[in-house]
Amino acid sequence: MAIGREIEDIARELIRHQHDHPPVRDLNREVDRKQTIADRMGADFARLIGSWIFVLAQLGLMVVWVILNAIASFAHWDPAPFQLLNFVLSLEATLWASLVLMTLNRQSDRDRLRAQHDYELDVKSEEEIKALMNHLMHQDEILLQIVNRLDRSDSEMKRLLRRLEGTDNGGTGHAPHTEGARRPT
Fold first, then answer.
1. How much is the pLDDT for 172?
2. 106 near 119, Cβ under 8 Å?
3. Contacts of 45 (CB under 8 A, 6+ apart)
4. What is the pLDDT of residue 158?
5. How far apart are CA 150 and CA 97, in angstroms?
6. Residue 120's CB: how many other CB atoms inside 10 A?
7. How confident is residue 175, by pLDDT bands cut at 50, 70 and 90?
8. What distance in Å separates the CA atoms of residue 40 and residue 46, rounded to the nearest whole number?
9. In percent, how much of the chain has pLDDT > 90?
10. Is 178 within a domain?
11. Please, are residues 138 and 13 in contact by the beta-carbon 8 Å criterion?
12. 21 and 124 Cβ atoms separated by less than 8 Å
């Protein structure tokens, strides 16, 4: 019965060392929930501006503009130095640069949030590792206790065996009879 109680005590000690931790957050979902329609549109435009499709479309528009203004059979709305094209491109560059800078500011906020989240994960991981190490040290202690109990039990069993061997011999101190050994005749 005592062994059963010891095992129950060990099980209670193991349960005591269990722990809970909060779940990991999904930052992308949190940031997406906080974005306004203007933020989403700005991010979409910034992605478009940074693509080859946009660059090729701009290049195509400029080529068409120049060709249509250079051919004599069409009306010239922007003569040879193409000042109107230059003005439109300057306005466009100002608008797109502002839009890209606003998107970079939002990205900076997202990066700051991600850095904070990484820090929280690092702290949580460190706590998990400490809890695991404490749990392993506690298990080591329990295993040492079990080994010590087994060693004591083994010593006790050997002592009892020697005692039984001594009473079987009638206290003569002779070794007990073993099978296969010959008796003198």
1. 56
2. no
3. 96, 99, 103
4. 93
5. 77
6. 13
7. low
8. 10
9. 18
10. no
11. yes
12. yes
Q: How far apart are CA 133 and CA 67, in angstroms?
A: 74
Distance, in Å, from the CA atom of 145 to the CA atom of 143, rounded to the nearest integer, reads 5
C-alpha dihedral (65, 66, 69, 74), degrees to nearest 10: -70
Alpha-carbon torsion 41, 42, 45, 46, what sign? negative
Residue corresponding to tokens 């079987």: 168
Q: Which residues of 46-80 are buried (b: 16+ CB within 10 A; e: fewer)?
A: beebeeeeeeeeeeeeeeebeeebeeeeeeeebee
149 part of a folded domain: yes
The amino acid at residue 46 is: A
Number of folded domains that form the chain: 1
Task: Flag whether 107 is in a domain.
Answer: yes
Domain containing residue 79:
25-168
Radius of gyration over every alpha carbon of the chain, rounded to an integer in angstroms: 42
* Torsion region of 82: left, alpha or beta (phi above 0 gives left; psi -120 to 50 gives alpha): left
Q: What is the pTM of this model?
A: 0.49
The reply to whether 73 falls in a domain is: yes
